[in-house]
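Q: Can someone sanity-check these two? First one:
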Amino acid sequence: MRAAAKTRRLSWSLLLASLLLAGCTSQIPQNIKHAPPHDPSVEQVRHSAIEDQNWQVRWGGEILEVENLENQTRFIVLASPLTSSGEPKVTDNSEGRFIANVPVFLDPKVYATGRQLTVSGSVLRFEDRKVGEFSYRYPVVQADSYYLWPQVTTPAYGYPYPGWYDPWYYDPWFYRPWYPRRYPGYWW
């Protein structure tokens, strides 16, 4: 009888452990999670005089433009610093702009402007384009892997929203006789 109880307890423990491990898995590609050994910034590559260097990079930021070509999708991205897992930080500091070529069709409604994207790949060449009237040198990255980060949504009302009431919340100051009541004449 005791052996059966131990076996049952062990099987439940293994089931719980496997469910916890399954919940911890991630869909983020390994190239996005881990930076290449020498990971130059967008500014370092942009201001480099060497055109033929084969840079392996992991860059990310906010999508500014999406262009679907015949064999690829081209993004213009406003680069920002990345966290250790490759997610772009929300900051006012920009590292510059770059162009990312992804060799598949990606829907511009899903990969819309304002979303956060991280790409990993190699720098192919440079393109000179205008930003307003300013001539800007864009590094062009041929993406081996890419990841569109989920949108962060905030509740419409915040928490607590107006009219929010928690019957289990106890405010010790509310019940002090010398403390003025929030709602005169009401006691609950």
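And here is the second, same format, sequence then tokens:
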Amino acid sequence: MTIGVLALQGNFREHTAMLRRLGADVVEVRKADQLESLDGLVIPGGESTAITRLMRLYGLEEAIQRFRAPILGTCAGMIVLGRDQLGLLDVAVRRNAYGRQVASFEADLGLEGDAVPLRGVFIRAPRVADVGPDVEVLAELDGEPVLLRQGRLIVSAFHPELTEDTRVHEQFLELVREETHVRA
């Protein structure tokens, strides 16, 4: 299983380390042609405006829109995948809606079907303003969605790569395995 991590800006190193720890082969993606051999893609947290500009500059915007394998988007990655950017995810997102850098926080999140809470690290985190009918909410914070899935896409408003908890990445890799079997 080969997973690409968009390595233009942001927390790509942390995602790479976690995915490797879980046994995936990882490629740091900086060019559109690198997407062709991947089983999945991670769009990390970082600065969504910078990531979007660099994606355009390197010809990745349209290539990611054509990419048909599973995608995990965290924080800025959720913004990039949403309605107002790439339009792959039927979610409206407000940037930095939990506040500035000094308002960053951690919180325990309840996961559907799991008794152990997931620790969420929220850094200048986006807030989900609207969710389309085909989007499943997997975790909430104070009644607001922060972990969601729509088909082959999983997104989070927080940074799962900044904790030791691997469950979000495990769920993504399971989705990649399922999709790989379907395509085969």
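A (reply): Looked at the second one. The first strand starts at residue 2 and ends at 6. The mean pLDDT is 92.
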